[in-house]
Amino acid sequence: MTSYFEGIAPVRFEGPETGRELAYRHYDPDETVMGRRMEDHLRFSVAWWHSFAWPGGDPFGGQTFQRPWFKDDMGAAKLKADAAFDLFAILGQPFFCFHDVDIRPEGESFADCERNLFEVVDYIGQKMEAGGPRLLWGTANLFSHRRFMAGAASNPDPEVFAWSAATVKSCMDATHRLGGENYVLWGGREGYETLLNTDLGREAEQMGAFLSKVVDYKHKIGFEGQILLEPKPQEPTKHQYDYDVATVYGFLQRFGLENEVKLNLEQGHAILAGHSFEHELALAGSLGLLGSIDMNRNDYQSGWDTDQFPDNPREVALAYYEVLRAGGFTRGGTNFDAKLRRQSLDPVDLVAAHVGAMDICARGFKAAARMYEDGVLEELRADRYAGWDAEAARTMLSTQALDEIHAAVLADDTRPEPRSGRQEILENLVSRYV
């Protein structure tokens, strides 16, 4: 164990009445909910990047964190891994996630970067074999380095496309070697700043070809995990091609990939797209695309993706309700793509942030499970659409032509009257569970 988290004991479930700061009040991994252990429902994951690689900057200020591993060499990379697995042991969560650049030092060439990656992957693998958590997903950082300033798959220069494809291949290999459950593609800069220098059609074709190659390689190496895309609106570019669930679904259909790729959805991105998180989850669930989630929140008074740890049980409950409606997680899980505030400097802050987030998620999930098991919302939803269960309504929708519908309305001559949507009653109902 490193000295970074020295003196911080493993966090245990103590119940809602405990007075200790570093204790789980609602998250009991062994509690049975809807026939499964809570740990197996929620499948918590710690994000390597925000927790161990982020220096504490924001759009108006630089580094505030001082971590002993903030150096770009192999010794620091292994020290970072040591500290990460110390935190994992304290929290007891079952998974973690990483980008390639989070875990390895930069090299002088692509070969150097790849060699560094697999040296650290082997080091992490040893720690996993010794009892550490599993890998929920791996991914490639194709957005931070200046070479990606105009995107990766959508880049106007074929050399950058090639570097990006090679990087993804290496990261898929690393994820496969560590037994990862998923591989995520996050298009951080797959968009444009101005149409004056952008060929939209060409860039979309490049992205479709890139993703098709990723899917082909998955099958070539026998990777059994999910390939996940993560919708991302606007920030940092003026427009992102992978704006939201609906946009990505259209893209997948265009290139015949809707049965090969699912989605990793983030609360903060949903808000930036002008949606609620539950909207994006519900739409993905209805399309059979829900794969995994990044659980965080934005500051609603800020205009960028602030990636804060969740603290609102109602928002979390509504999100998990849609996860349950979609059948729950299989290979996916709940990753905390969340970071400390830049004034939260101490090791205990990082522990406390995760403890609070896991508790909020557990509290919201249990409320969602009660709502789902009671079935009241689903009964009211079904009642609202009950008219469509009648044979005449089904026939109208499936086989009747427009003029036939017109003739039927003329013959019946009954004026339809609207029925209440009962929104306030439904909102009050949710409040009783949360």
TrEMBL record:
Cofactor(s) named in the record: Mg(2+)
List of catalytic residues: H99, D102
Primary location: cytoplasm
Record note on cofactor: Binds 2 magnesium ions per subunit.
GO cellular component labels: cytoplasm
Entry superkingdom: Bacteria
Catalysed reactions, semicolon-separated: alpha-D-xylose = alpha-D-xylulofuranose
Residues noted as binding Mg(2+) 1 in the record, renumbered to the chain: E230, E266, D294, D337
UniProt xrefs under Gene3D superfamilies: Divalent-metal-dependent TIM barrel enzymes
GO biological process, one term: D-xylose metabolic process
PROSITE patterns per the UniProt record, alphabetical: XYLOSE_ISOMERASE
Keywords tagged on the record: Carbohydrate metabolism, Cytoplasm, Isomerase, Magnesium, Metal-binding, Xylose metabolism
Positions bound to Mg(2+) 2: E266, H269, D305, D307
Compartment list: Cytoplasm
Family statement: Belongs to the xylose isomerase family.
Subunit-structure text: Homotetramer.
Entry protein name: Xylose isomerase
Lineage: Bacteria, Pseudomonadati, Pseudomonadota, Alphaproteobacteria, Rhodobacterales
Gene behind the chain: xylA
